[in-house]
Amino acid sequence: MSTAEVHSASPADAAQFGRETGSGGQFVRQPNRFTDRVTRDSRSAPGEGPDDEGRWPVEPGRYRLVVSLACPWAHRSVIDRELLGLQDAISLAIVDPIRDERGWRFTLDEGGRDPVLGIGFLSEAYLATDDEYQGRVTVPALVDTKTGRVVTNDYPQLSLDLSTEWVDLHAPGAPDLYPEKLRAEMDPLMQEIFADVNNGVYKAGFATGQRAYEDAYDALFDRLDVLEDRLADRRYLMGDAITEADVRLFTTLVRFDAVYHNHFRCNRQKLTEFINLWAYARDLYQTHGFGDTVDFDHIKRHYYLTHDKINPTGIVPKGPDALRWLTPHARG
């Protein structure tokens, strides 16, 4: 292809996800399709579907959380499930980190089918819920095992609901990840982290225009600088206790040097070159529910083998050395 042909191609033609690319080459994430909730005030009886406001009843053992260990959005709910002690209340399904053209696959399970849902692809649950769905199939997805329908793929609300709606099933001594007295400060902080960091790395990595990439890059590192300063005099983002804000920031930080710095061209500096953010990230990694839910093999193979527009060779980097995450952090 000639230089002229390259320059004349539309941003969508060059994008990893053409439907989610704006006219200026900016990545525009698709909205979450399924936004029902599992709540304590659902008017539905146990075993029933949602009430007329889309609220499903809280029931231990009824719902299956489908995740990819590679995905930062899904990783949030995995961490929350561990921290809150909901392992027996909500079962976990893990998809193959490598997607094909049909999306997330259950090829890690015997026979290539999820043993509870009986499906080979998460897309089957999506289509069972909306037979006209044509968007990208995403994780996490909370699926009702009675009907095979997707309750929600609304990952930010799902994480909050694990903290606030499943409280009767929390383990004794489970942390309050979304304290009511801190929400007025937490909510805008988490929105800033989402816009500039969590989604910011994707806006840089999936950009197909120079201006779109540079805008995302600048916003990302401006926000990381602010967070670096914030963590200079406090152990966690909200003070001396872990909250949902830390969960949301961690899932991006733990992928930063392994994926985002190189693969998504977020290369002003590595996480290991931030004094406070790097120590903070190690502190969390060495806390139960965080590091023990990280799978660097799944993370690297997913990003480097499924984003063929960005990494057409399919070569997966060997590094960085994961043992560095276990070095002392001096924040305890």
Automatic annotation (TrEMBL):
<feature type="active site" description="Proton donor/acceptor">
    <location>
        <position position="202"/>
    </location>
</feature>
<dbReference type="GO" id="GO:0004364">
    <property type="term" value="F:glutathione transferase activity"/>
</dbReference>
<dbReference type="Pfam" id="PF13409">
    <property type="entry name" value="GST_N_2"/>
</dbReference>
<feature type="binding site">
    <location>
        <begin position="136"/>
        <end position="139"/>
    </location>
    <ligand>
        <name>glutathione</name>
    </ligand>
</feature>
<feature type="site" description="Lowers pKa of active site Cys">
    <location>
        <position position="303"/>
    </location>
</feature>
<feature type="active site" description="Nucleophile">
    <location>
        <position position="71"/>
    </location>
</feature>
<dbReference type="InterPro" id="IPR016639">
    <property type="entry name" value="GST_Omega/GSH"/>
</dbReference>
<dbReference type="Pfam" id="PF13410">
    <property type="entry name" value="GST_C_2"/>
</dbReference>
<dbReference type="InterPro" id="IPR040079">
    <property type="entry name" value="Glutathione_S-Trfase"/>
</dbReference>
<dbReference type="InterPro" id="IPR036282">
    <property type="entry name" value="Glutathione-S-Trfase_C_sf"/>
</dbReference>
<feature type="domain" description="GST C-terminal">
    <location>
        <begin position="179"/>
        <end position="303"/>
    </location>
</feature>
<feature type="compositionally biased region" description="Basic and acidic residues">
    <location>
        <begin position="34"/>
        <end position="43"/>
    </location>
</feature>
<feature type="region of interest" description="Disordered">
    <location>
        <begin position="1"/>
        <end position="57"/>
    </location>
</feature>
<protein>
    <submittedName>
        <fullName>Glutathione-dependent reductase</fullName>
    </submittedName>
</protein>
<dbReference type="GO" id="GO:0005737">
    <property type="term" value="C:cytoplasm"/>
</dbReference>
<dbReference type="InterPro" id="IPR010987">
    <property type="entry name" value="Glutathione-S-Trfase_C-like"/>
</dbReference>
<feature type="binding site">
    <location>
        <position position="104"/>
    </location>
    <ligand>
        <name>glutathione</name>
    </ligand>
</feature>
<dbReference type="InterPro" id="IPR036249">
    <property type="entry name" value="Thioredoxin-like_sf"/>
</dbReference>
<dbReference type="InterPro" id="IPR004045">
    <property type="entry name" value="Glutathione_S-Trfase_N"/>
</dbReference>
<feature type="site" description="Lowers pKa of active site Cys">
    <location>
        <position position="260"/>
    </location>
</feature>
<dbReference type="InterPro" id="IPR047047">
    <property type="entry name" value="GST_Omega-like_C"/>
</dbReference>
